[in-house]
Design a protein that fits this description.
The complex is a heterotetramer, with one copy of chain A (301 residues), two copies of chain B (332 residues) and one copy of chain D (509 residues). Chain A is built from eleven helices and twelve strands. Chain A is of the alpha/beta class. In chain A, strands 2-1-3-4-5-11 form a six-stranded parallel sheet, sandwiched between helices. Chain A is elongated. Chain B is mainly α and 332 residues long. In chain B, the strands form two sheets. A two-stranded antiparallel ribbon of chain B has the order 1-4. A two-stranded antiparallel ribbon of chain B has the order 2-3. In chain B, a hairpin with a 2-residue loop joins strand 2 and strand 3. In chain B, helix 7 packs across helix 11 and helix 13 packs antiparallel against helix 14. Chain D is α/β, with parallel strands linked by helices. In chain D, a hairpin with a 2-residue loop joins strand 1 and strand 2. Classes of the chains: A alpha/beta (301), B mainly alpha (332), D alpha/beta (509). At the C-D interface, helix 9 and helix 10 of C face helix 10, helix 11 and strand 18 of D. The complex binds adenosine-5'-triphosphate (2 copies) and magnesium ion (2 copies). One adenosine-5'-triphosphate binds next to helix 5 and helix 9 of chain D. Chain D: One of its GO terms (molecular function) is ATP binding. Chain D: Keywords: ATP-binding, Cell membrane, Membrane, Nucleotide-binding, Repeat, Sugar transport, Translocase, Transport. Chain D: It is found in: Cell membrane.
Chain lengths: 301, 332, 332, 509
Amino acid sequence: GCGGSQQGQTKTDQKMRIGVVVKALNSDYWKIVEAGAKAAGEKYGADVTVLGPNAETDVTGQISMIEDQITKKVNALVVAPSQPSSAIPVFNKAKDAKIPVILADTDAKWDSKVSFVGTGNLNGGKLGGEYLAKILGKGKKVVILRGALGDPTHDDRANGAVEALKAAGLEVATIQPANSDRAMAVTVMENIIQSKQEFEGVFCTNDEMALGALKALEAAHINVPVVGFDGSPDGLTSISEGKLNASVAQSPYNIGFQGVEAAIKAAKGEAVDKRIDTGTEIINKDNVKQKLDELKKILGK
Amino acid sequence: MSTNPQALPADAGTRKFRIKEVLQKLGALISLVVLSGILTYLSPYFLTMDNIMNIARQSAINSLIAIGMLLTILTAGIDLSVGSVVALSTCVMGILVVKMGMSPILGIIACLGIGALVGCVNGLTLTKMSLPHPFISTLGTMNVARGLALILTAASPISNFPWSIQYLGAAFWGPIPVSFVLVLIVYGLFHVFLNYTTVGRYIYAVGGNPEATRLSGINIDKVLIIVYSISGFMAALGGLVLVGRVNAAFPLAGLGYEFDAIAAAIIGGASFLGGEGTVWGTLIGAMIMAVLRNGLNLLSVSAEMQTVAIGIVIILAVYIDVLRHKAAKKAK
Amino acid sequence: MSTNPQALPADAGTRKFRIKEVLQKLGALISLVVLSGILTYLSPYFLTMDNIMNIARQSAINSLIAIGMLLTILTAGIDLSVGSVVALSTCVMGILVVKMGMSPILGIIACLGIGALVGCVNGLTLTKMSLPHPFISTLGTMNVARGLALILTAASPISNFPWSIQYLGAAFWGPIPVSFVLVLIVYGLFHVFLNYTTVGRYIYAVGGNPEATRLSGINIDKVLIIVYSISGFMAALGGLVLVGRVNAAFPLAGLGYEFDAIAAAIIGGASFLGGEGTVWGTLIGAMIMAVLRNGLNLLSVSAEMQTVAIGIVIILAVYIDVLRHKAAKKAK
Amino acid sequence: MDQYFLSLKGISKSFPGVKALNNVDLDIKAGEIHALVGENGAGKSTLIKILTGAYQYDEGEMACQGNQVRFASTKDSHNLGIACIYQELSLTPNMTVTENIFLGREMRIPGVGLLDYRRMNRIAQQTMNDLGVDIDATKLVRSYGMGYRQMVEIARALVENAKLIIMDEPTSSLSEKEVKILLENIHKLKEKGIAVVYISHRLEEVLDVADRITVMRDGCKITTMDKQEADQEKLIQLMVGRTLEEKFPKIVAKKGSLALRAEGITQNDLLNNVSFDLYQGEVLGFAGLVGAGRTELARAIFGADPIDSGKIYIDGEPVKINSPEDAIRHGMAFLTEDRKGQGLVLMHDIRFNSTLSGLKRFCTFGPFINTKALENEVESLIKDLQVRPANSLITTRLLSGGNQQKVVIAKWLCSQAKIFIFDEPTRGIDVGAKVEVYNLINRLVSEGAAVIVISSELPEVMGISDRILVMHDGEITAEFAQSEATPEKIMRAATGGISDEYKSASAAG
Ligand SMILES: Nc1ncnc2c1ncn2[C@@H]1O[C@H](COP(=O)(O)OP(=O)(O)OP(=O)(O)O)[C@@H](O)[C@H]1O
Ligand SMILES: Nc1ncnc2c1ncn2[C@@H]1O[C@H](COP(=O)(O)OP(=O)(O)OP(=O)(O)O)[C@@H](O)[C@H]1O
Ligand SMILES: [Mg+2]
Ligand SMILES: [Mg+2]
């Protein structure tokens, strides 16, 4: 708090610059992360730039963005690496340039990171699996729709869910990719229904796919719980209408906000916790109202 | 008259020739039949009424976009922007109708209008700026339209469209999806357009020999602008069906649709060198793509293997057509 | 002999004409200079040694892939599989070297070999199966190679490559990235290959008029197989640099690289109709793409606006070339 | 004033580096047949492209029936009743004959607005029948050879209700019979009061058909004269600025050993059991009507198309020729009749094209091309063949038709073959250059090469061949030594008249 503002005053004309590089800026989730990051920048009087490539799968594009931030000699970096192991060389470059790096949303096995802010997708997937297990019970079968194969975010979410479901004695009927796309999820779900596979629940690694799957299930008059991921505005609305059963929500706003907060601290040379847990929770009909209100406040609309 | 000018038999009219003609027109049909046969054998669920309607519905969006793509391919061009047009046109419609409460009819008009407009821009940049190839102009608008869709929606989807907008993509007449009826009507219209109107024939002429076409006093630029406008329009129509299907417009809609549309046209016998390709071939091409995806899902093929299988089937589908052509030539 | 046969002035030889010739060859150079000028004005970080080396490094992978793509475009073809080849070849190398402990040299050979092999398969399916257009064969292998990469790696990345493998992509000679030196050497070799060897000239001939080329006694199939093998090889080389850059091989590597490579070649003056395009133009095309992305990042342009800007600049870059051509024609 | 349908005054047109037209005046009376002659590159095609609005002139003025006009596109000229057959065939091969004939002026069903294929097909077929060619109007243009395509172009111009029809070398790939029909048709047009501008390098035709003749040279109009004032010598003198000593400078070379033997070449319906021998130092002429299968035979021998049966011997040895590559390896060269579609890579320069087939010869160091040697060779070829402009770095697309033909010839000279097959080698070449080509053929045979010449111009086949084979309907129907050949005999064989005689004779021999 105090020390920070003092240092800020010593270089009044030289505002602190924080570079935030996320996986992409093409979804609600990252937009909320951006909102959080910007809010933190405003609060602490730092200049926060949020960048992200076109798609979460554009690994090299993201690395170039980080490099370009290093070129700009930002005071600290907050990065949500889309392919953690691939980003390590560029992290080392940042370290050489004496730029502290905070990892947000997705962790990487890199010893020199200042901190990891978030909960991790694996844990989120586990939470979703456990929730389904709880409402379905032992021996039931679950269909999983996931994002593009090889996309680490969705690998983690799917793996976490599978782990939890198996641990609770449930079965995974099939895992099919629907590339995080609502329309493709409809098609894939239609075909799964058509193949007369038995299942009592559906887990999707993001809300878009969950809403698509829901659409196909509704059309076939199949009423099974569908659990999504991300707690997106559309997902929450659907939950409040009693359609989507639940969504696993990390706190994107907090990830952005606390990520930048940690970055500012690190840039000032203050100590930062190695691990900042932003919390993950299940949103269902019980708490959806409150979450929707929070979300509206965050998005300020 | 025949859709595929190449397939015109020397003495049409006799019964036997008609069948041959149809076979020649619809070369890809054999691939489709073979593929369906295999899938029927492998999965008991494939050849059910339910599933056929499934496929009809699933192929509708690509079919609509592919017919526009066919026109561009006939002129030896390409339209990479179709996927982005799907996103932009539907997102604008979403904003107008859902967020601003405009009437659904006006929303639909806006959606289709934006599609045609982006297409028109493609045509104009191609012709008036003398860009060397539509790859450039449409790659440009592909990026611009996607960016605009993201900006306008602030990257979040728009749901809860009125039923009148969802109708095309969601409604059924009995067991038959309206979207499939739409596809058949559209394809019928395009058949007439391409074969029985001057502009339709000029499209083939431009692809066959642009210089000769120009010297025949035909305004090539006008033809191209019409072609790209239609392609944009059809992409928006595909978008409209998509909105009905998922009851949402979202800025990432249509990612990669250009590949599916191009593949449909080419599998259906269109040539990148221009001037060759048929309406019905394209429909079959779109069907092959849909049947393939559907079948692999039904068989619960693992996702990785699906990717591999799609690659192999695309090649084989076209190869069967090549073999058929060769056999037909020998038989003569 | 000239790289771009069309651009030759009526009386080459005098000093003045040489400069003109160079300008004509490297039409895209003007776009690059204009773009760099604007960025220098807008961002103090742009024209720094550090950043120039940044751009050199960031453009390296696309440059390597684009030169292979250029060859396919010169033959009026296309290679959609390059992105998947990047993934497959590097993943196999990862498995061999990191997981199975094979020597790095053998790993590199395997990587490049697999690239050439997939390319060769592209060429063979195209020619021996008489597929109508490489769009089909390479769309097929694009899917197959991606699927195989996913299967082989069980969809997870492979890290911790030995330094010898990382060298090309990660090492520096002084301030200069080795990858950029590699690009310059490769481009020099390709310049010689395309202009001073028979096969190189045949590549231009095949694209310009395949029938005339065949009747001139040239084995078109052989030329095409060589072209696609080289394209695959270059994609694998690009992959090798990528592995050095990120110290990892991953099955989703190279997604969408085909668009960037094609755009580089086309911005650099290559024509989809075949027979036209230059080595150095392609390098400049790749530079334009890299400078654009870099500049927009430096200016902290938002992602959506970047998408829009890239779309517009792609069109403008080519348009400037068109205008220059027109002006050159008038001036004569 | 009104006596001129079209009049041009002081027309100039420049292309980068060339002044194609320089202050040209031209008047065309209504209903006259006006011939345009001149060397290759004289500017004839450019002039008529200005007439149709395909090009725009830089200076000058143009009037149609007394009204000042300026054509922005071919549409404008078409609206005034000007139709044109361009020198380089301009058909769309992926469409039917009917569609090509009506391209840009389709007929529609009244009231409905859709295309009226019935009516168009009927008219097209009728026109083709009137022209006496066996063409199915509903077939694709792609399935017909050059001669037929030329007839389709002619039909295209006839179908229109034009007031002026321009024909740029309409007969360059036609044989005697078709030419005759065409000339008859032109006379009919004249009777209907339609003016015709006629461009040809075949001066006999010009003198036969024209009312007035305009001679051009180097982009300038030299003179316009009435037919009565003109004769061949005078025209040649005006065109090339000198007289030609001999139109067919024939030398008889020493006949060597058997160079090529074709035995029973059969291909679908196109070729039926064709056999012949070709000796070193011999020029073997092939005569026949359009569609006789001469081109098919050449392509089959050269490996360009697969054959069903038959054997080929070179220097007495049986050889397998499955591709042009094989043929070239065995020392063959094949100059195709379609220079644009099968001869040239139009976007590339003269140097590129003329060395394409012989490129390996210049590799002195591994696979690398010795550029210096290549340049020298190209320069000397350009000089030998009088290619104009004599700049090896000019894109071949920009050359005049005749000069393009010379580049294709250069390509095969450069390949240093032993057996040459020339399909219509002088197509579109001016009289002066023709003599050069004949001299060249003489040089080849005197150096021991064997040459096949396929030509639709009877005087040419008779003038330069040692032996003449006549084809009809995919078969060889007669063989003549140069001394015994007469136009009548050849025509009779070409229409299938004496095939039986030949068959029994060759069976006996
Ligand atoms: N588009 C063009 N660009 C540049 N030069 C051209 C172009 N068209 C023609 N030329 C040049 O103009 C001159 C006249 O050509 P044109 O085709 O009119 O000759 P021509 O009299 O028809 O010859 P030919 O008898 O060989 O057909 C030639 O030198 C030719 O190279
Ligand atoms: N690509 C083709 N496919 C089918 N038939 C063809 C093809 N090309 C030519 N023909 C037919 O082959 C026969 C021989 O034609 P071709 O043009 O070779 O004769 P030609 O004696 O060389 O006459 P021309 O003077 O027209 O060249 C004709 O009946 C023609 O219609
Ligand atoms: Mg001419
Ligand atoms: Mg012929």
